[in-house]
Amino acid sequence: MSRETADGAASEQAVPERPAVEVDGLGVVLGSGTARTEALRGVSFTIPYSRSVGLVGESGSGKSTLAKVLAGLVPIDTGRVVIGGERFSAGTSRRRRDPGLLQLIPQDPFSSLSPRRTAGQALAEAMDPLRADARRHRSAIEEWFERVELPASAAAKYPHEFSGGQRQRIAIARALCTRPRIVVADEITSALDLSVQVEVLELLAQLRAELGLTMLFISHDLAVVRHVSDEVAVLRSGELREFGAVEQIFTAPRDEYTSRLLDSVPGAPGFRIRD
Ligand SMILES: Nc1ncnc2c1ncn2[C@@H]1O[C@H](COP(=O)(O)OP(=O)(O)OP(=O)(O)O)[C@@H](O)[C@H]1O
Q1: Looking at this predicted complex, what is its ipTM?
Q2: Full-model pTM
Q3: Where is the ABC transporter domain (predicted)?
Q4: Helix (H, G, I), strand (E, B), or coil: what is residue 171?
Q5: Cβ(62) to ligand 1 under 6 A?
Q6: What atom of ligand 1 comes closest to residue 186's alpha carbon?
């Protein structure tokens, strides 16, 4: 979105008035019969453009369900989400998302990258689904590999030929090469060794700053969330228990559940990975 400047030129930097993401009274029911679960219940929050919201909560609290709703992979039962001004609700929630609007970076790139496609093909497919030819998009693919600090030769390799950290770099490149304004990162470092986690997080932070990305960053690792978020949303059993600025959440949580989550962090309350 752009606005007219004083001299009449459109400004790319202009900040749109609506938030990038609005989640309003969101409810999602999964499964049926005895497996029926209210995965999300009355969840509301917003993410302004270029901000990063960390989403935390215990296993089963509904974090991945929320990620999938935003990506259009899980239908909405009640409430609505508005992404880049486009409204999705019960009847429309699985409408195909514009790839330039929002991209999901999944937890496990090994299962999301096809074993039969080279890394270059995976990027070509993301950039141009109708003419997914790696040769046709060679220079753009090479540029993206450079951005995620992989050699150009990576384009010809298959997922099993990479380490976990390299595969996550490919998943980041594949998501970002469609030039989304918003990314949802779902536990993207949880399967990686600590040193590799730090490298991937630093890369993501750098790309986020360069591209002005809006981000929902999901992790059960509170130290990591503190490092990458401006605001933090705390989910418990499908409900939003607390939403606030990162320092407020970590130093003066208002909800007793948030306090308990923080207490479970090693070395809490002084445990931190930045500064
Ligand atoms: N297909 C399904 N059918 C029924 N219930 C489901 C289904 N998928 C997930 N659930 C339930 O929905 C709830 C939310 O699950 P979700 O995967 O969103 O949690 P999460 O916070 O991402 O957990 P984790 O951190 O373990 O990935 C859980 O109680 C889970 O058991």
Answers
A1: 0.97
A2: 0.87
A3: 21-262
A4: helix
A5: yes
A6: 22
